[in-house]
Every structure is written in C-alpha cells, then in structure tokens.
Fold each of these.
Amino acid sequence: MTLTAFLLAGLLLFTLGLTTVLSRRNQIAILVGIELMMSAASLNFLAFNRFVAPDPAVGQIVALVIIGLAAAEVSIFLSILMVVYRAHHGITVEEIRELKG
Amino acid sequence: MNPTAITVATTFAPFLAFAVALLFFMKRPVLAKAIVLLGGLVSVVGSLMLLAGGPREPVRFLWFASGDVALRFGFLYDGLSLSFGAVVAVITFCIQVYSIGYMAHDPAKTRFFAMLGLFGWAMLGFVYSVDLLQAFIFWELVGLASFFLIGFWYEKPSAAAAAKKAFIMTRVGDVGLFIGILIILNSVGIFDIPALLDPETGLRAALSPGMLTIVMLLIFVGIMGKSAQFPLHTWLPDAMEGPTPVSALLHSATMVAAGVYLFARLNPLFMASETTLLTVLYISTFTAILSSTVAMVERDIKKVLAYSSISQLGFMLMALAAGGFFAGVFHLITHALFKALLFLCAGSYIHHLETNDMEEIGRRGGRKMRWTTVGLVIGGGALAGIPPLAGFFSKEEIFAALSHRGILIFQAGAFAAAFLTAYYTFRMIFLILLPARTEEPAHAHGHGNDSPLPMLAPIMLLTLAAAGVGFGGGWLARLLDVEREHHAITSMLPAIGIVLAGVALAWWDFGRRAATRTGFITAVKPLHTLFTNKWYVDAFYANVVARLTDMLAGLLQTVENKGFDDSFDGAARGVVETGSFTAKLQSGWVQSYAAVAIAMMSILGIYLGLR
Amino acid sequence: MGFPVLTFILLCPTLALLVIMATPASRVSFVRWTAAVSSALSLALSVFVWLGYDAAAGGLQFEEIVPWVPSVGITYHMAVDGYGVALLMLNSLVYFAGVLTMWDLSLRVKEYFAFMILLVIGVYGVFMTQDLFFFFFFYEIAVVPMYPLILIWGSTRKEYAAMKLMLFLLAGSALLFPALLAIYHEAGLGTFSLVALAQHEFTREFQIFVYPFAYVGFGVLAGMFPFHGWSPTGHVAAPSAVSMLHAGVLMKLGAFGVLAVCVRLLPDGAVYWAPIFAGFAAAGVVYGAFVALKQTDFKFVIGFSSVSHMGIVLLGINLGVMGIASADAFNGAVFQMFAHGIMTALFFSTVGFIYDRAHSKTIADFGGLGSQMPRAVSIFIVAGLCGAGLPGLASFWPEMLVFLAAMKTVPFIGVCIIAALVVTALYVLRVFEQAFFGPPNPKWNSLRDLEGWEVFPRALLVAVLLFFGFAPRAMLDLIGSSTNLLAAGF
C-alpha cells in the first residue's frame, strides 16, 4: 500500500461527500455527505502521518479532534433540524429559502 | 440744557410712547392715547428748543465697529435738520390731536396711536441723523411705520394690498440706495454726512466723476421710491387706503418728503454730478406733469391730493436739481404744512359726510362745515400758488431757480405743472363749494355742523400756518445760511398769470352756473383715457412686472421640484433598485451557495497551484 | 483650571437625559420639568460664559484639557472662542424656548424629550470641543436623533422627509469623515487636537484636494445650495421645537464646521475654492428667496427662507476667505448664524402654535388671522420683518456686513443679493397679506391666542432680536476679536 492509494481513497470519499452535499435535498443526507468529507480529511491526515510525518502523533490527534468535532456538529445540526422541522414541517432544502432576495 | 439730551428726548419720546402703549395699554386706549400725545408734545417742545438754539456742531458716538468699519451715530444740527425737524414734530403732534377725533370710534385705537409714535420716532431720527447709515436705518423704519399705518384696517383686502405695494415699491428704491451707500462706505470708509460733503476730503475727492454719478444715481433711485417719483410713484395713491390722518402725516407732509430731504442733505454731492442732475430734472418734471394730469380727472378727494403730493414732490426735486437749494427746502416746508392741512380738511369731510367723492361731498353740504371749508380754500390756494399764501412764495423761488438753470424744457414743464395744479386744486374747491344742486346734508353723526374740536383745532392752526408761513422765507434763508435774492414783482407776474389762468379755467369748467362740470379734457378722448387710466403705469406693473416675477419664481419652483428634488429622489431610487436587482442573486438555496463557494475556492486553489 | 463651566453646560442636558431615561414614561410632567430645568441651567451657564468671556483678549478661553485616548491622540479639550460663545448662547436660547414650546406635547413625551436633549448635547459638544474626533462624534450625535424625531412626532410626509434628511446628512458625513481622517493622517502629528492641527502647514495640493470634501460635507448640513433639498422638507415635517432646533441650531453646525475646521485647517484650499463656493452661496440666496415666493405652506416658506439666509452665512465665510473685507464678512457670517437661529426659532415656534391650534399650515386656509390671534400674528410679523432684513432687528447688521463685504469683493454678487432683498420682502409680505390680513375667516373664530406663559418663550426670542438689532456692538465686541484673528490669516 502506498500513500497514493490512501490519497485516492480519500479523494473518492471527499468527492462522494461533496456530490451528496450539493445534490441531495434532504438535509439528513447532506449531513451524511458532510460526515463523509470529514472522514476523507481524517483519512488524509492519517495517511500523511503514516508515510511522511516525522512525529507520528500529530495526525492521529487531529483525526481524533475531527471525530469529536463531527460528533458535536451532528448534535447541533440535528437539534437545528428539529426546530426547522417544527417550523416548516419538512427538512428538504427547497422549503427553507427564507433568505431569497 | 444739553442739546444731546434734548435731541434724545425729542426722538425717543415717541418711541417710548409706542413701546409702552403697545406693551401695556393694549386694552386701555385712553391711556395709550394720552401717552402717545405726551410723547408727541415732548418732541414738539424739544424740536422747538433745538430750533431756538440754532445750528451747532453735530454730536456722535460709536455705535458699531466691525473690522475697519466704525460707525459713529449721532445728531446733526444744521438749518435743514432743525427747521424740518420742528415741522415734522409739529405736524405729527397736530395729527395725533386730530386723530383723537378722527379715530374716536375705531376699536383698535391703541395700535393706531402706537404706530403714530413709532412713525414720530423714526421720522425725527431720520431728520437728525448725522450718519448716512443711521439715516438709512430710520428711513427703513419710516417705511415700516408706513406699512403698518397704510394697512391699519388690515381686514380690508385693498388696504392690505396697498400696504404691501407701498413697502415693496419703496424697497425697490431702497435697494438702489443701499447699494449706493455701501459703495460710499467701501470707497471712503465713512458714512458721516458732514465729512462726506467736505469738498477736500469727502466723497467728491475720493470718487472718480463717473463713479460719483453712479452713486448719486443709485441714491436717487432710493429717493424715487420714497418720494414717489415716476416710475416708482404708484404706491402713493394706493396708500390712501390708510386712515386719513395717516395720509396727511406720512403720505404727503413728512414721510414722502424724506426723499427730498435726503436730496437736500446731500445737495453738494448731487451738484457735483451733472448727469445725475439732468436725470433728476427729467424725471421730476415728467412726474410733476404726469401726476397733475391724473389729479385732473380723479374724483376721490384723497387720490387728488395724493397725485398732487407726487407732483409737488416733483417740484421740490426740480428746484433742488436746478440748483435752487433754498427753493426746494422752502417748498418742502410750506408743502408739508399746507398739504397736511388739505388732508385734514379732506379727512374732516370724509369723517363727517362719509364719502370720498368730491361731488358727493359738495352735494351733501360740505361747504356748510365752515372751518373745514376755510381750511380747504386757504390750503388749496396755497397749493395752487395764489399770492400771498405759502405756496406762492416757495413756487416763486422754484421758478426763479429753474430760470437760472435756463433750460427751456424744464421751465415750460414747471409752468405747465403749475397751471395744472391751479386747475385741479380749484376744480376740487369748486366741486365742493359750488355743488350742482344742493340737497339737505345727511349728518353722519347727528350733531353739529362741523367736525369735533380735536379735529378742528389742528385745521385752524395749520390754516394759519399755510396762510402765513410764506413770509418766513427770509428767516429760513438765514437759518439755512444761504443767500436769498430779492425778486422784483415784475418777475413774478408770469407765475401769477399762469396760476390765475388755471383758476379761471377751473371756474369755466366747474365753477360758473352753466358749467359742464366735466372738465375740458373730456373733449380730447385719448388723453382723457390715458389720464383716467393713470398712464397705464399700474397696469404695466400688474401685467408685466408682477407676472414676470411670478413666472421666474414659478420656473425656479419647477427647477426645485422637477430638477433638484426629483434628481435626488431618483438617485435614492436608483440605489434601491440596484439593491433589489442584486438581491435576486440570492436564491436562498443553501446548496447553490455551497456550490459557488466551492467553485470559487477551486479556482483560487488552481490559481495558487499554478503560480 | 478653574470651574469647568463648559463641561457643566454639557452635563446639564446629559444628566437630564439620564434622569429622563430612568423615569417611567407615565410621569410626564416630571419629564417636562427635568428638561425645562436643565435648559434653564444651561442657559444660565451660557450667560455666565458670555459675560465671563474676555472679549478684549479673544482667542480660546474656558479651556479644559483631559487626555482621553492618548495612544491615538484624542483629548477631551473643551474651549470656546468668541463665536463659540455666541453659538452656545444661541443653542441655549433655542433649547430653552424649544422645551417650553413643546410643553403641551402628549405623544410619547419621555422619548421625545430624550431624543431632543440628545440632539442638544451633540450641538453643545460641537460648539465647544477643540478636538477633531470629539467634533465629529458630537456632530453625529446631533444629526442622528433627527430621524426618530421627525418620523414619530412629525407631520406632512414625515417618512419621506425623515429618510431624505437622513440620507443627505449621512451623505454629507460620508464626504466629511474621510476628509477629517485624511487631515489627521496627513498632518502626521498623531493628534486630533484642532489647535495643533491648525498650526500644521498642509501642502497646498493636499488642501485643494481635501477642502471641497470637507466643505460640501459640512455644507450639506448648512443647507448649501444645491444640496439644500432636505432642509425645507425636513423643516416642514418636523414638530415645532425640532424645527426650531433644526433650522435654528443644527444648520449652524454645518456653517460652524466650515469655519472652525475647513477654513481654520485648510486656508489655502479655502482660498482656492472660495470663488466657486461663494457663487453657489449667492445663487442659494437668490434662489431660496424666489422659491419661497411660490410656496403655499407656511413652513415651506420659512424653509426656503432658511436656504436663502444660510446662503448669506456661507457667502460671508467665502467672502471672508477672499481677504478683501475679511473681518466684516466673518463677523457678518457669525452674526447672521446667531440672528437667523433666533429668528427661525421664533418663526417655527409661532407657526407650530398656529398649526397646533388650527391643524393647518396652508397659507390659503387662513386670512384675517390678525384679528383672531393678534399676539401670535404680531410675533410672527416680528420674525418676518427680521427675515426681510429690517433695521432694528438683529439680522439687519449681519446682512449689511455681508453685503458690504460682497460689494467690496465681488460687486456683481453684492448687487444680486441686495436686489434679492426685494424678493425677500415680497415673500414675507405675501404671507402677511394672505394669512393675517384681509377679512377674517369665520372658521377660525374659536381659535385661542397665545396666553399667559405661552407668550414667554416667544417674547424672549423677540427681545433677543430687538436687543441685537439696537445694540449690534454687544455681539460684534464679543465675536470681533476672534473673527479678527481668523481674518488675519487671509
């Protein structure tokens, strides 16, 4: 296994996530997409950490922070979604366009 | 007593009376009347004391200092100011007394008497001014008093309009005057009248002849406004909307004479500018004739007298411009007395018989009001220039001055105007004295055959003055310190002849039993139309000047609304529209924002990567 | 440093503002009395300053210096020179009369007085500060409350007027702020002190570039033609006391700014631009008079007369800069600020009264009001005659001085503006004739005239006009030394 393989996997993961974020209408799905992108970032950190970094601990720490961050983000995101659902009776992005000019 | 203190008392007593009456006695007309009369009396006594004291050095005190301009206001005591000041004070007082009777039934007496006080202050302040700007200030204040008094019966729209017209037209003149005196200040740095008149260091030395002419012409514009000379004369007949005592005081005897007085005050400067003198002569001669012709066809007694005032003011200016300083001042003083008398008589008729129309006055038995009629005849005789009444002597001086000047056209004009004056004056007398058919007089107030004593006393006093003051010429000449030549009786003959001719024609037209009572001028249709329409000067103002002003104001109003307002509103609206246009870019769709953001970041990344 | 009287003048309204904000809105009469007491105290202190100012010595007096933010050179520096004293007095008089004029207000009294006092604080601050930062700070404080004051308590198209006024004034500030920062930066002294900046010699190019920004920025507030559009609309919409403060004092801030900042700091720029700005000012004088002739609303007539009269102030300043009759022109400009302030305050105070009673300010609705409201009409007539430049009332002298300077410097302008006197008289007398004279309109027979204490604030202003009309030296001696100092630079 080389660094390139990991990076390609990360890239694939990121692209999938990005496509999900931009194309799905359901906000839960968008959240899943964001999670995928963050996983891709974590994967990149770990891969670089494994192959090129002089100090092996940093990448892992960053990956752990990202996991924690993702957890916090999910909880906030879901609680916002609850409120949005109550107000709009739906959670698709088409319905939530109050900032339209 | 200190002359300064006397002058202060003389000039400020009426002002105090004005202020006290207006502030405290609004509801107590009797007290207000008393206090204004007291103020008037103080002025009379003070001005007579000053007159008795004779000419002395002026006094001055610093009033105003800004930058290098320092104005020293004060009082001037020469023959001119002393004599005219006394005349003003006496006539003002006479008219205040007269007003007790005339305004007895008016609800707003306090206001009337207070304004007479204001006028007395302003006019006396003007007469004694040593400083040109001080004179200008009082000149304006006199105009203010005139505004209030013409518009005294302000509920009458015609009175309100007349007051406005008088103020505006004199203002037009004042603009010229103001510019003139500012040029004086800018070129010599002083306003002090004696210093300006000084031939070595005064205005004549400081200004080039051309500039001097401009300045004097500008000052003359002010005089035209105040002394009602063509073309700024039309306010004066309209000013007759005011109560008759006001017409007597302001609009014949004193205020309108302020312009002539100013001319006499600055006489040496006017003498130095030949162009100005000729202009003045042309304008005043034309004015004298124009207004006499209108007086020939007017039926309203006050209007006749108003046009007669205009014409007599023209006479005075002719005299002054022809170099007859003494003649002009003499006529100024005699005219003030006999014209005040005539107006008081007119007021007496109007008050008693309640009509302004001369034929109506005659028909309602005006001649039965004995003292008033005596006053009218004496005053009329003086106005016409019948010897030995006051006007004869002063007019004689004017003819002499004009003959010294020796320009035929002005002499002829003066004779024509004198002839017309005699004609219209005796037309007035005959219409009142010898009415076509006599009806029983309708007594307005149901008592007595003449006006009450407060009205008659001033009439009697002024009758005496109009009859006798003509003999005071020698004394006045000494006071003014001028040489007065003696006129042989033969040189007076043409003047007497022309006056008698005028009287005879008036007799032919109006006096004799078989008279047509229409006047010879009706035979010449176009002239008659011209005269009855007052030479179309008023029509010109109403239709051309007023309309042009209105159009200009309307144009600028359009510029304001359509130009400035709309363009700024448009700019604001443009901003709003730009905003709402760009707002359309905001779809509110989170994913499109994300897509744009990512695209931008990718472009940035590629750019940075390639660099 | 002696008794910090200027700070106390500023504190009077400030404390009143705090007290009023802490008062429950229902205690209306307490709010009124607080405002009245604070204004009376400020007036008393202003009189003290007037009397205490040593006119012979001139220059800045009553100085108070406290460092505020030393790192950028902001100092709490309060001091007044001669014309500052005159304008403080003007503000105090108008504030005092304004509070009394609005005594009968019933709508949101607490908020009204709070905003009005905030405005007054700003004006006081501008007139006494010698620090550019505080100058701008107070300047904005004075401008901003106009918006709610007009929007809530106004009349006649008030939303439009409030917005228009705000946009114009903020646009002015937008020009001004960069100009002031540029001055601060260019000097490189690290201080906002006006005194220090005034001594710095800016390069001629810099002055010529920056001056028009600062001038127009201030000029907008002074009703400078052709950026005057906000002022008549604003006057008309604002409630009486706000119109009084607005036309009486606020517009003077602009002219004061031109004098105290632009001319003082950028003399070369001022000289360079003076002919152009003098032309605009003179055009404003004539234009305002003519447009006033066509108005059908009392307040619009006064509004355009303000444009005309403020044109005389700006003209005076520009003529002063031109250096031929500097002292006269500056004296005229400052004196005119004072006289016009008192005069318009009187106008609006009286028109406001008539409007409150009759609920109309259309001239044609009236006629013969003179016999129905003799006192109010008499007072209006005094103000009107003052506007027409009649001797014996305060504005004659400044107008004469400016005319004089104009005749000396640019005779053409002089002749034009003196001729405009006729138009001025015409629009004033037109109002008299149409609204006050003529047969009384029976519709207004039941109107109540000014009574008792209601006369007091107006009578006070009339007395001030008469006093300075007869004793111009009282003013000229006060401002003369300072304006001479200013004029010496040109």
Amino acid sequence: MLKDFRLEWRQRAALNGMLLYVGSTVFVCFLSFSLKGGTPPAPAWNALFWIILLFSAVNAVAKGFLQESRGRMLYYYTLVPPQAVILAKIAYNALLLLGLAMVGLGLYMVVLGNPVQDPILFVGNVALGALGFASTLTLVSGIAAKATNSNTLMVVLGFPLMIPMLLLLIKVSKNALDGLEFEASQSSLLTLLALNLIVGAVSYLLFPFLWRS
Amino acid sequence: MKNNWWKGLAVVLLLYTAVAGFLLPVPRLHILNETIRNLYFHVPMWFGMTFILIASVYYSIRYLRTPTPQLDILSHEAAKTGILMGCVGLATGSIWARYAWGAWWTNDPKLNGAAIAMLIYGAYLVLRSSFTDEQQRARVSAIYNIFAFATAMPLFYILPRLTDSLHPGAGGNPAFAKYDLDDNMRLVFYPAVIGWTLLAFWLAQVASRIATLKLKVYEKQLV
C-alpha cells in the first residue's frame, strides 16, 4: 500500500497546476470584491470559500483516474489488491485536497480578511471536508473514467453526492465563524464523520467490482 | 393466480384509500384542516420509494455477485419506479404546500433534501445512458446505484432531523406524528402505505417484463 502511495506521489504533475488554479481563483475573488471596497461580509466569505474548495476538489480528483492509462491500471492490478489501490487513492486525494485547502485558506485570509473566531474548529472542519470530498470523488472519478463523456459525468455524479456533506460543512464553518461554543456544532460534526465513514466503507467495498471491468 | 394475490390487494387497498381517504372524518387541526388528507397520498409515496429503492439496491448487489441481464433490468426498472414515486411525492407535496404555506417551494431542509436525492438518482439515469457496452453499463450503474442509495438515504432520514423544519412532523408544527394521528386516520393511512408500496412493485414488475421482452426481440433481430 505504501508503494502504491509512492506511485501516486510520483505523478504529481497536476499538483502545481492545481495550486495555481486555487491561487488564481482566490485572486479573482479578491479583485471582484475590491471593486466594492474592502472585505466581503462573513456569510459571503464562507460561501465563497466553500465554492472555491468544491470546484478545486472536483478538478483535482478528476485527474486521479481520468489520466491513468489502461496499461498502468493493468500494472497496478498485478502488483496489489484493489482495496489497497482505493485506500491509497483516497489517502492521496485527501492529503492533496487538504494541502490545497490549507494553501487556499491561507491566501484567502491574506487577501480577503479573516473573520474566523474559532480557528481550530474551522481548520478541523476543513480537514473533515477534504477527507469527505476525497472519498466521495475518488469512487465517482473511477466510475466516470469508465464512461464515454467522463468530464461532464464527473460533475453530474459528483455534485449531488457532495451536497449533503457540503451543507453540514457550511453549517459548522458558519458556527466557527461566529465563534459559537463547540456544543452547537457537535451533532453536525458527528454526522459528518458518520457520513465520511459510510462513503469510505462503501467505496472500499465497491471498488473491487469496478476494478474488474 | 396464486402468485398474483398481492396485485388484487393493491387494487383493493388503493380503491379504499381513494374512497375512504376523501370521505372518512379527519381531525380539525389548525392551518391544516382538510389538506391533512394529503397524508394518504404524499407520505406513502416516500414509503413506496424507499422500499422500491431498497429492492433496486438488492438486485444491484445480486448483479455484482452473479451478473445476468435479468438482474440488471430488475434493478434499473426498480430504480426508475423509485424515481417516479419520488417525483410524484415532490409534486403532491408541492401542491399541498401551495395551499398550506402559500408557496410551491420553500427553502426547507426536508424539501431540499428530497430534491437533491432526486438529483442523485437523475445522475443514475445520465450515467446509464453514457455507456455503449451493455455489460460495463450494467456493472458500473449497479455500483453507482449502491453508492447513491448510501448517500441519498441520509438526505431523507437523517439530515432533516438535525435542523428545524417547516414541514409537518418537525419543529412543533401541526404534524402527522403519532400523537395527533388519530385512529380514524390510521385506518386509512396504513392501508394506503401498503397499497402504494405494492403498486410500486407492480409497476416495476411490468416495466421489467417489457424491458426483458424488448431485449429478447433485440437479440432475435441480431441472429
């Protein structure tokens, strides 16, 4: 499994592109808000941040399976069991998204101000979000890679599946922005965790079947 | 005839629902008044949808174990019936909301959850149509079907419970919960649930028979 992870890491050509993608999106947001003068209000700040994350997540993870050649898949197939592949992909994507989110958040806070009152909760929430996006989108990109119009399909399949997660994430991060005490977001966080577990477990179980075809 | 008793039961129960649902007395609740009768039509849709989608997932799992075209057809038609039930559920709810709330659609967690779940299953249909190879289509859509079920069900049954909602049954609104669902209403509600669920299975059965026949005709043309 570690080997597989390293294989993933080696082909990280997309990484720099993704960093640039996030950076330029944040900068465009900054430019559009600076027309009105100053930083956006907290709810808009929150919504914009998650929209940026959502789109960069879809773009980043889509690279994972869509760019794999058939030959390389066969090569993996001879090396490791499918469960290791999906776990490694999810782990890699989660780390990738986490890195992207952190860089994005840093830039975002620099140019658009920092209204967050509970940074620990906010960052933890972003980490949960990255994990959840990674586990949903990894299987979706695996499915989409099998079909003919993969890029459209990736968005059509991925977005509705991510909305429940996104709703919870936005709610918790709103709580973190307003500095509410931890109890207020506890149940949402637990549901988020449970949702992540369900999605991860289902991907783990289903991937071997997807792999074989 | 021995195996078709449940179709007769579905007809009888639905006729009973239609007649008794409109004629039997209902409790006078504030705001709801007569619109409470929508309970016999709107709520059973979601029950029927859930059961038929469970059946669809069951066939998908069986397909992944032993791939046969028959199982694929069954799970596809069951999912389509589930989508139909969901759309009718949304429509009946929307019409009810027009008179009870004054708007066709409101920004309510229950409504949005149901709409998003419908989108998830809409994506299932899009996914199916984007394959040319039949076996691959069947396998991948079976996988997506299981995945979609696992993410759509929290939208119906878990997430709306976490927030306050305008929808009956939540946030102290006059509701169909057990304390104000009186015995008269139960007399119609439970048969209605069973009747609509049976109808859903009947629809799925007829649809998959048609699909099987079409497949056979198609195969004959190839020979």
